[in-house]
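Figure-free illustration: sequence to structure, shown twice.
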Amino acid sequence: MLTKINKPDIILDRDGVINIDSDSYVKSVNEWLPIQSSILAIANLHKAGHRIFIATNQSGLGRGYFSLDTLTAMHNKMLDLIHQAGGEITGIAFCPHTPDDHCTCRKPKPGLLHDLSLEFNIDLNAAIVIGDSLRDLQAATEAGSKAILVLTGKGKKTQQENPELPYPIFETLYDASQNILI
């Protein structure tokens, strides 16, 4: 009898990890542009048996820059591209609040990770969180997860401002995925 080896769940930030980020916010479906290697990375991780999740701050909702319908359309575009590549996203959690709202879900707080854990039975102590900002890494640490920094999006700035980060660092999500798949 073969024993199933449990693969760690992967929780990704969205902007700057999966798609090209913008300092003026990604506000429309047309502005949501994938990092092509990230779509392939997600597909490869999924095919290898990892469940993939997204935890993303989307304060553009709270700021009135786009609607929930627009966010849903952006996510549908992303999911379509991932499905076309043979991948799957098991769940998406997003925080619509601005920093001034002082909510419990906005990263660097771990609320989004806890929400995903409760809904999808994720072992956060075994999970890997991949992000491009310090707040992604802080949320992962607070939740007890392994954190990885990618240098896409705000990643290079994050690394420059925090040169002593104790986390693995990779150029892209694809590079991080190749390391996970070893």
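We now fold a second protein in the same way, so the two outputs can be compared directly.
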Amino acid sequence: MATTLDGKRVAFLATDGVEEDEYTKPREAVEGAGGQPELISIKPGEIQAFQHLDKSKTYPVDRTVADANPDDYDALVLPGGVANPDQLRTDPDAVRFVRAFFEARKPVAVICHGPWTLIEAGVVEGRTLTSWPSLRTDLANAGATWVDEQVYVDDGLVSSRKPDDLPAFCSKMVEEIAEGKH
């Protein structure tokens, strides 16, 4: 299995309220495999990360989602946190950006509360994925099958439940991005 991401650009879509480890650990995994991560957000400047409910560090935004072209990226990562995906799903540019990765059949990795943005983009119907347990009903109502597993892969869509799942999530995410379009 290919695990090198040399030359691959990976969009990390996040905003204020992102769960820090769910952003930093996958970003480190992409960099460690030779990929080029970029932080895409709904606002320029910096985003405020959290460790659970406590403010942590801020991270510089590389590009706003309004100025980002999904065609320029090989994959998409959607970190969780409660506030982050809740804000993303209300931004039309963010929703279009996410949908474009599914239309192009590019790998997408999502963790924790991140699937809220997928639901808003209308891309989970007929899919199987996992998430933070409180999203189970939301996903089922959107036509998805929810499973309680550390990591689950459905045709290039990698999903995990929580920060404790990050080692398995990062490994599968890198594998799916290395495979490319599905």
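Summary for the second example: Residues 9-179 form a domain with the Rossmann fold fold (CATH 3.40.50.880).
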